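Listing 4. Sequential folding, example run.
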Amino acid sequence: MNQSAKQSTAYAQDANTQVDTSSGDAFVKFRYKWIPTHIFGELLSKPWIDNVVPVTILLLVVAFFSATVNNFLLPANVMDGTRQIGELGFVVIGLMFVVVGGGIDLSVGSNFALGNLLALALTNIFGLPVWVVFIAVIFTCSFVGLINGILVGYFKLRAFLTTLVMLIGLRALVDTLLLEYALDISAGYFDDDFWYFIGDGDVLGIPTSVFLLIIVAIAMHIVLSRTKLGWHIMAVGGSRRSAHNAGISLNRTVCLSYVMCGAFAGISAFFYAARLGNGGSYPGVGLEVLALTAVIVGGISLGGGRGSVFKAVIGTMIVQIISLGVVQAGLLSGAGQLVLGLILLAAIGFNVRWVKNRDKVLSRIYMSPTYFALPKAPETSESSGSPYAANDRLGAVEVIGLDQVDGAEDVVFDSHDNLYCGDRRGNIMRFDAPDYKQARVFAHIGGHPLGMAIDSQDRVVVCVGGMGLYRVDQSANVEKLTDETNRSPFAIIDDSRLRLTDDCDIAPDGRIFFSEATIRFDMSTWPSDALESRGSGRIVCYDPKRNTTKTVARNLTFPNGIVTSFNGQSILFAESWACRISRYWFDGPKAGQIERVIENLPGYPDNINRASDGTYWMALMGMRSPALDLALRMPSFRKRMSQEISNDEWLYPNINTGCIVRFSEDGEIIESLWDKAGDNHPMITSMREHKGRLYIGGIFNNRIGSLKIDSEDQNWTGSESYWSKS
């Protein structure tokens, strides 16, 4: 890695100032523009990608038996097979809840047999109404599940042994009851149209059991993915210790999962009894093997915490089609169980390997650098005569709040001159005017507060990395404004959630414009976005009057600082890795347009704020290096680097040296301020002019800087600049 960096540096020093002169560069640029390889990593990161394997297996199974078994797809065979899929599907969905919660239930077959016997006895012997029979069967099977749940959830007995004993006990109970009532059940006859409809009817050509299974599957998907009970079951299955620490009742959650499993076994038994009216001893025998095979083949993890209703349904279809195909193929008795056993063994092996290696595969392919060429960086040496020439003007910075703050990325002032900043502990810190000697916790939000602004009512509007946009009033009441925006129509990953909001400013009408640096990485991995240098950031607008959030600009290269222009019709924003400043017009004749203001900076721009003379201050959080500039034109090199060495040795942007730049409305660089020694502020992410001084923040610093500047108006404040007219 070090040798590669040295070679890159040497090459960059001799490189031509033009970036697209070679045919090699043109080819690489074309290849990475029109073949977006990052979509493979995004696809693999989606939860539903696990469904591809069972769906593929399902298609292969159907194709195999269609080609090898005569009349396999006859309408009568299909109708009978789908009824059986509907009945088995209820058992599998119930077992899915138990498995996702980290348990197992081997008693579902015996519980099913008990429900079937009860349904037939209540209809053929006692002639009770169908709805009474349904409730009685569900209640009885749920009660069996409750016993399992109490023993496993509250008494902490092992699920495998407990449900195995329940399987044996219930089977013995069913056999005993059959000796007593089998003859009466066989002799009885229940003549009820609704009972026939349940067993042999259909809705719009769909068997009744399958039609109800579809409705129940949709409802259970909502329960598992959108309700507190579903989240608790997933959490308990994923990590019981973490779920306990989060305040989830493990006992109740585990118990409820077994009750649900019993209830679904009862529903399945009810449909089976209505269809066949079989009161023999074999119903439910081996059903636990079928259901467990369906759960695992569908891709539901035996370790818990990972699964879905869709996977359960797909697994049900695979197992039932194989069972029917084996029977119609005329294989010898027991061959079906052998085939299912082999499938179960293969599914367990695949499940273990997939769970173990998926993250490894994802980590190797998710990072997808693209071609990104920067012009030659402007000179910064002292003797260059460049407006960026290094100096020591920040050497006179005074220090505020040394060791009282940690990671004050931005600073802001209210109309009473009080200073606010965030810290990495999730606090909004306040220094009271006029001396700014002592910091105190003004409000606790969580996350890492980043860019801030003050509205017309002295409320602090703050971007919180990983959480969204928040507002804190002068009584320290915290209010979440938004944590989501409209989803991109063709996005693979769900970009509706805000992952890395980092700076904001407020328009004259109250609309809040804020930047999200990247939709592909989060607060802990944001430097990886620099290695990709892919346009995955955006500008978002929150309208407090309508309480709406909308993305107004996409495909930006790590958009960072934002400031509302003096004309009140546009915002200036920084694109850090692109080393440029752009303008977005949100009002006026150019509304919706983006135009460049500064094309080529010597470093990575961060926050931008107004200056008292109608210009703008901008922080450069780090300076460009020839090695990284060259590497940006070598995506395959960066890809290999991300795969072959640890991330703490990657070629990252230099963010340990920075400076402050002042520029005009049309992009002219007026002055720059440096701290060559790096003693006061080696890393600068923001600055705010207030009454003749610059107050400086840094996301890695343990202090705030204060520098006296020559200003035409020593009483100028940002609050008055924004809100004096209103």
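-- end of first protein; second protein begins --
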Amino acid sequence: MAQGSNNNDAFAGSAAQFMQNGQNMMQQFMDYLGKAGATAGALPPPAVDPQALTALQKQFMDQQMSLWQSVLNKQQGQEPAFKVAPEPGDRRFSAPEWKDSPIYDYLHQAYLLNTQYLKQMVEVMPAEDAKSKERMRFLARQMADAMAPSNFAATNPEFIKLALETKGQSITDGINNLLKDFEKGRISMTDESVFEVGKNIATTEGAVVFENELMQLIQYAPLTPKVGTRPLLVVPPCINKFYIMDLQPDNSLIRFMVEQGNTVFLVSWRNPKEAQGDAGWDDYLEQGPITALRVVQEITKVKQVNALGFCVGGTILTSSLAVLKARGEDPVASLTLLTTLLDFSDTGEIGLFIDEKGIAAREATIGKGGLLPARDLQNTFSFLRANDLVWNYVTGNYLKGEKPKAFDLLYWNSDSTNLPGPFACWYMRNMYLENNLRVPGKLDMCGTKVDLGQLDMPVYLLATREDHIVPWQSAYQSTRILGGKVRFVLGASGHIAGVINPVSKNKRSYWVNDDVKKDAEGWLTVAEERKGSWWADWADWLKPLSGEQRAPRKPGNAKYKPIEPAPGRYVKERAV
């Protein structure tokens, strides 16, 4: 009896501690906001409505007491009357060890309550504007994710069980994993030894037919007995590498393009080193799509090509076409933009921490020359989905001592690129901060004023419904900016999975609606959902624009002889 009493006393102590932890978490968050505001020279955050605060605190304490009583009742064989469930998709506490022990059962539910309390507190706190409120929500989520009991050895029952079962070997393996990642300077997300670019990833056959300081131009070998006379130029993002579009043969968008009878050319951006650290936005336009279009025209002997841009590659491509239009040139017959922003009014969470002070600081350090390191970019993108791309691997690699599984997408995700400082600063200021690209004649690029409304070719716009990098409603705004007839398609899933969705797997779905006069939500309300991949829809759209059929030719010509096999040297250069 005394032993049971001791257990209950210990449990009561744990309950009291976690109630206090919730209050401490909130206080730490408030202190952080105050310090951040002081550092930025902002006014102190407005005071919370006392009545709202009191009501929220009372609700929090009542829920904690209900949870404590519920777990005690469960110990006595009664059905719990009060439970706190994780949000959909949160798998951190799915292992049975979190529920088998009353201490860990209470611990993880109390944490979820604390997290709810923090989020609710943010909602009752005044904010200067909508962006400030979103920034508060983001910071609250980062703090809550970092403080999860699953992240710490002492509060993770899976760690303890595995350590006992392996007689400490899992701890040794975890320490070794941590030391290896310290050497690499990043968290391992996959077994990188399994993959090699050009060997079992990025293997679509072709050749580099041109190169300059910033890019190589790849021409892919034909896979059909006939091809359209009008080739297709692909401009991927210069943030990360192009082979997200050419991972394995069964999920390669590049290979699919070639299989549809297109002569496909692709810009493979260089991973910049110090020698390229002075490159700016205009350099990327001139030495990227503008040069690539000229070379493609000369190799294929056509006046117009089809062009496709992905993410920031689409922004670069569209800007390049606007420059050429201003020069009186019209080299593109159709334009495809995949998850691309032209209107940066709403940039999602990436834009929350791009402000005048931050950009001015970067302009003062790397704006005239230097590199924005790949590590900075990768950390930024990873913390947008911290539980999936950070803490999940902290727990698995370091606490459990597990070796990450081989996954081509995560291999690509870890293969980040640097950016030249002048390019990055210009891009952040003129796009994310000032949103200048959408304004006709506002920006001077390559010595000329640009107006995207002058681009009157047919356009295929793809956005994805759960995109946290390019919100689909923002991508939809391109229908208001470009001058040509637009087909807007909305894919399921996110920024990558929604784009790399092979027809052969028949997964997910997409929405179509020919009427783009309505606003984004109005468009979706009456859009038709179709099962499967958007790839087939795009291929049907592009086919009439690809010209007459003819026999294919080998990559290059007498002037542009193949330099080396695809995927080329540039894409194999890893950031240090």
